[in-house]
């Protein structure tokens, strides 16, 4: 049986809400705070919007991201607690996320590639018809 993963270096990111900023101060005082590039795990403190933003910003890093609810909507988040965070991180079940890939060709023929965790939105700059093709 594999030993549990160790998360010695934690990077905390927080939304701008007072609740998330207070949590950031508490957790930083207890566990330290590393840059995401140097951390073993990224802990997002906020709501679902921050979680999606954190996933997008760190998708190429292969670092696990653990969310704790300190925002308005938190369907994607775990319960907030300062107690024994490293044990909770080690016990967390990992889920692999396969982001969507949007490939868009603009009016000048330039191809734009973007990854999306939750959704892709297109905004037309003109009133011309848009051609859409969706592949799964």
Automatic annotation (TrEMBL):
InterPro entries: ATP-NAD_kinase_N (IPR017438), NAD/diacylglycerol_kinase_sf (IPR016064), NADK (IPR002504)
Main enzyme class: transferase
Residue ranges of the TM segments: none
The organism's place on the tree of life at top rank: Eukaryota
Gene Ontology process terms (BP): NADP+ biosynthetic process
Pfam families: NAD_kinase
Family: Belongs to the NAD kinase family.
Annotated protein name in UniProt: NAD(+) kinase
Species this protein is from: Chiloscyllium punctatum (Brownbanded bambooshark)
Organism classification: Eukaryota, Metazoa, Chordata, Craniata, Vertebrata
